[in-house]
Amino acid sequence: MTQAIYLDAERDPLLIAEGWMKEGRSCAIATVVETWGSAPRPVGSHLVIDANGNFQGSVSGGCVEGAVVSEAGEVIADGNPRMLEFGVADETAWRVGLSCGGRIRVYVERLG
Fold first, then answer.
1. Is residue 50 assigned to a domain?
2. Is 1 part of any domain?
3. 53: alpha, beta or left, given left = phi > 0 and alpha = psi -120 to 50?
4. What is the pTM of this model?
5. What's phi and psi for 11, nearest 5 deg?
6. Domain with 75 in it
7. How many angstroms separate the Cα of 1 from the Cα of each of 4, 54, 67, 77?
8. What is the pLDDT of residues 29-55, one digit of tens each?
9. pLDDT per residue over 57-106, tens digit each?
């Protein structure tokens, strides 16, 4: 049975992943490796995901977590890491004041 996981800013996603792996769960970690513009999470932010789609942490404050969780499922299944890029790639979009302009690059890899 899958246990509900709630985002909690006081919890360390890496410690949560360690606990999940001790329970025998397959896991992946997503790490923010580059930002530009208005990315809501800094480089080094983490999101951990198990094979059932449970997750803890954040790489974007909710903007791209669904897509990252989906890709993490594939990373867990095939073991091949992925570099994901989301957002506006053209600097002119940022200059005209798009509130969610910017870009974020996230590296997703299997743990264990």
1. yes
2. no
3. left
4. 0.80
5. -100, 140
6. 13-18+25-111
7. 10, 12, 23, 20
8. 999 999 887 777 899 999 999 999 999
9. 999 877 789 999 999 999 999 999 999 998 765 554 444 433 456 788 99
